[in-house]
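Dear H.,

Thanks for agreeing to be a second pair of eyes. The structure we're designing against is below in token form, covering all 158 positions.
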């Protein structure tokens, strides 16, 4: 893998993370009724750091995949478009949930994010199996986050 490609993808991913970090949980989130299984706040930083590295490596691998085979080239283009879309959706969620304090809107958005992640995985699997595998933990975490978002929305109707 070319290092400059990986660095570009890492830069894009951590820029999206920085956008999300611009909208921290804060007092509003602290006051929400939470389920007993809500993860501790300190867990999110390390988890997202690992996931962002996996997201970047997956994107870089798909970018560098062979363009010679027409079938794989089409899958590669779709995978890259979906990778870009999931990254934008990822960056937007914190704004919707914490910035706008709109768990219902954020729930709809995270469902679209999860669908985009799965669609990326389907396309990426045809291009680079490791890229597909690198998205498995991300899909699992966003699935959990979707359920948590739903639960917070239900527990805090106002």
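And this is the sequence the design step returned. I haven't edited it by hand at all.
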């Amino acid at each position: 893998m070319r290092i400059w490609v990986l660095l570009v993808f890492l830069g894009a991913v951590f820029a999206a993370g920085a956008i999300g970090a611009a909208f921290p949980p804060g007092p509003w989130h602290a006051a929400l009724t939470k389920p007993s299984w809500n993860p501790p706040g300190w867990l999110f930083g390390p988890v997202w750091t690992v996931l962002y590295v996996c997201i970047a490596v997956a994107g870089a691998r798909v970018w560098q995949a062979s363009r010679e085979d027409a079938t794989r080239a089409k899958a590669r283009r779709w995978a890259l478009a979906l990778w870009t879309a999931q990254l934008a959706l990822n960056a937007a969620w914190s704004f919707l949930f914490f910035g706008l304090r709109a768990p219902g809107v954020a729930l709809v958005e995270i469902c679209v994010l999860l669908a985009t992640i799965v669609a990326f995985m389907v396309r990426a699997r045809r291009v680079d199996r490791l890229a597909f595998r690198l998205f498995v933990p991300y899909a699992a975490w966003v699935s959990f986050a979707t359920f948590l978002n739903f639960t917070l929305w239900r527990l805090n109707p106002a």
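Two observations from my side: The chain is about 80% helix and 0% strand. The chain has one domain: 3-155.

Warmly,
E.
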